[in-house]
Amino acid sequence: MTPAKTAAATAVLLLATACSAGGAAPPPADTLIWATTSAPNSLDIAHGFNSASTLVQAAVLDSMVGLDERGKPVPRLAAGWTQPDPASYLFTLREDVRFTDGSPLTADDAAFSLRRHLDPAVASQAASYFTMVKKVEAVGAGQVKVTLRRPAPAFLSVSAIAWQVVPRKLAEAHPKDLGSPEVGTLGTGPYKVSRFSLTSGVVLERNEAYWGPRPALRRIEVKSIADPETLRLAVRSGEVDGTSDLNARDARKWTGLPGVKTIFYPGDNISYLSLAVGNGPLADVHVRRAIAYAVNRRAISDLMTAGHGAPAAALLPAPMLTALYGSAPPPLPDYPYDPAKARAELARSAHPGGFTLAVPYAGGGDTGTVMQAVAADLAKIGITLRLEPAPADQYQSRMMEHDRLGIQFVSLAYGTPEPIEVLPDMISRASAQPQGFNFSGYGSAETDEKLDALVSATGEDAKAQVTALLKEIAEQVPYIPLFHTDNAVALSERFTASLGTWTTDMFARIRPAGR
Predict the structure, then answer these.
(1) Same domain for 400 and 479?
(2) Hey, which residues does 273 pair with through a beta bridge?
(3) Which residues of the chain carry a pLDDT beneath 70?
(4) Cβ proximity of 388 and 361 under 8 Å
(5) Solute-binding protein family domain location, by residue (predicted)?
(6) Are residues 311 and 244 in the same domain?
(7) Among 65, 221, 206, which residue's Cα sits nearest to residue 129?
(8) Of 268, 267, 288, 266, which is closest to residue 277 (Cα–Cα)?
(9) Which pTM does this prediction carry?
(10) Which of 27, 202, 276, 378 is the most exposed place for a label (fewest CB within 10 A)?
(11) Nearest of 294, 279, 489, 496 to residue 381 by alpha carbon
(12) CATH number reported for the structural domain that contains residue 140 in this entry
C-alpha cells in the first residue's frame, strides 16, 4: 500500500473508531449514503452518459418508458401507447405530472426531450440510440407522436434508457451545459437535487409530489471515493452505506465485511480492447489479429472477475446474447491465446518485426491493471506499448474527444436486451465522431446500411443479421472482447434491495431493512 493510500485508510479507520466511541451519531434510517469511484459529471444524459452520472439521473429524471424485470417495455411517464402503423408510436402522457419546481409536464416537453438528441448542435452522447427516429411532435395537449424512418422494434427498449424528460424551456436555454453544477436540471422523478458539486458530490431529497409510489428513502447522499481500498474501508466503517463500484476481482475482500451484505447479479456489460483502425500499424488487419491471438483473454478474465464473470466470446453483453440465442450462440471467428499464431499473423503484416505504440490510459484501477497485462502479452511477440498513464477524468475526457486513440481498454454497461443498443456504438460512423463510443473508427456506408436494416428486423431475421455483424467484427478485429462481469453491490445490513439485470433506478429498489 502506498503512503497516500495508507493515510486515506487511516483516516477512515479513525472515523470508525470515533463513531464507535460515541462520536458522530448514525444517520437517520431513511438516509442512504452512497459512494461511487468517479463523480457524476453531468445530470443530463446527453453529456453525462456514464455510470456515475446515470445513477443519479435515473433517480431524478423520469423516462417515457420503463423496463420490467424481464427487460420488457412498460409505461412510465407515458400512461400507454399505440402504433398507428409499424413505423410510428403515439404516446399518451399521464395526467397531473409536475416537475419538481411545480410546473406541469407537457407533451411539448416530452417531444423536445427526445428531439434534442437528434440535434448535432447538442452533440448528445445518446444520439446513437435514436438514429431510427425521423420526427417527434406534440399532438394535442397530452400526446406525443414519434415517427421512425422504418419499423424499429427496439425503439421502446432504448427509450427506457435515454428518453429522459426535462423542461423544454430549460433545455433550450442550455443546450451545452444542462445538467452541469451551474445549471442543474429539473425532473419529475422520485427525487430532486438539493446539491450538486463535482468535488463534494450530490444530495438528493425525496420528491414528495412524485406521481408514482412514494420512495422509501427520504435523503440520498452520493460521494466520490476514487481509491478502491479507501472505499471498502468506508463501507466497512459505516461511513458509507453502499456502493455498486466494487471490483469483482476483489469480491473476497467484501463478502466477509461485518454488517455488510454483497449482492451479485448478471450484468449487461462488456469489457474489451478497442483498436483504432486508422492509427498506423493498427490499420493492418493482420496486426489486429496478431494482437487478438497474443492477448491471454482467459488470464485477464480470471484476474478481473475472480469467478464473478467469464471471458467474452462476442462483442455483446452476456444477457443480450442469452436473450437472442438462448443457450446456443453461433460459432464465430475466435482467437484463442496462441503466441505462435500471433507471430505468424504479424509476419503477414506490414510490420513483421513488430513496432512501438504510445498508449495513453487511465492510470490505476481496472484500466491500469488490464493495460499492463496487455502490454506484457504483446511484448512477447515484438509489439511494445509505451504506456502513458493519466488521471482517470482527464483520460476519459480525452477519449470521448477521440484524441490520440490507439489501443484502449473499455468497459461499457447497457440497459436493455436489444443488440441494437450496442452495435451502433461499435461500428456506426456517427459514433466514430467525438462524444461517440466507436473508439475504433471502424465503419462504412455499408455497415451503416446493415445497422439500418437491423433496426427493423424481428425474430429469426434479426438473429441472422446480428450474427452477420458479429462475424464481421470478429473477422476484422476492430475490437477484442475480453470479459463480462456480474454486477455487484455492497450494502449495509441496515438496508435491503431488490436488484436485477434490467434495474434502471437503483435507489428506488433500496429501502431501510424491515420496511
Answers:
(1) yes
(2) 409, 480
(3) 1-26, 515
(4) yes
(5) 72-420
(6) no
(7) 65
(8) 288
(9) 0.78
(10) 27
(11) 294
(12) 3.90.76.10
